[in-house]
Here is the input.
Amino acid sequence: QVQLVESGGGLVQAGGSLRLSCEASGRAFSTYPVGWFRQAPGKERDFVAAITWSGRDTVYADSVKGRFSISRDNTKNTVYLQMNTPEPEDTAIYYCASRPVIGYTISTMTQPSDFSSWGQGTQVTVSS
Here is the structure.
């Protein structure tokens, strides 16, 4: 099982930008799909974005489409979430997740139950 560590969170002004990183241990990580989720206080964990092992295909939640971008560098075992023009509503703990699976369709991997390994999360606070 891979170990995931998120970083890059912090305080950002609305309209600014922030890049989150998800670094994984284990060579097999480069063959897994990865997702980003977020959880605000008192709310459920929500899907943000996901990416295939190759990085060729991605899927986004409607709320972040056009503002956030997911990418990966398999030579560094790292997946990124670029957050552009964040809004106060984007304030949450952000988690990355992966799963050792083949034969999947990334557009259907939008639920927390679709992933089996999780990081500890990184706090993102967007000020208005």
About this structure: The chain has no helices and eleven strands.
